[in-house]
Amino acid sequence: MKCNIGRADRMLRMIIGIFIAILGVIYNSWFGLIGVVVFITALIRFCPAYLPFNIDTSKNDDNTKGCGSGGCGCSR
């Protein structure tokens, strides 16, 4: 599994994921599970929806501090 989520994308996913999950709890809706999935993709730094479109937002990140240095477990 290759990391394909960069730092900015990761932070945005965490914020949006938490927000959607909280709204799901407040309104007692299953919609909150989408927020959990978005948050999990941020944690593992891999989005399967990016694969068909060949999107990789981690290309612009500094590889010495992010992906490949043991942070996400991928081999870059």
Mean pLDDT comes to: 86
Shape: elongated
The SSE string, one letter per element, is HH
Low-confidence sequence ranges:
none
Tally of strands: 0
Biggest β-sheet: count, sense, barrel?
A: none
Quickly describe the structure.
This protein is mainly alpha-helical. The chain has 2 helices and no strands.
Task: Describe the protein.
By secondary structure, the chain is mainly alpha-helical. The chain has a domain at 7-47. Helix content is 43%, strand content 0%. The chain contains two helices and no strands. The protein has helices spanning 7-26, 32-44. Helix 1 (7-26) packs antiparallel against helix 2. The longest helix has 20 residues, at 7-26. This is Inner membrane protein YgaP-like transmembrane domain-containing protein. It comes from Sulfurospirillum deleyianum (strain ATCC 51133 / DSM 6946 / 5175). Residues 1-60 form the Inner membrane protein YgaP-like transmembrane domain. InterPro entries: YgaP-like_TM.
List the helices and strands and how they pair.
Layout: H1 7-26, H2 32-44
Keywords:
mainly alpha, single chain, YgaP-like_TM, 76 residues, 2 helices
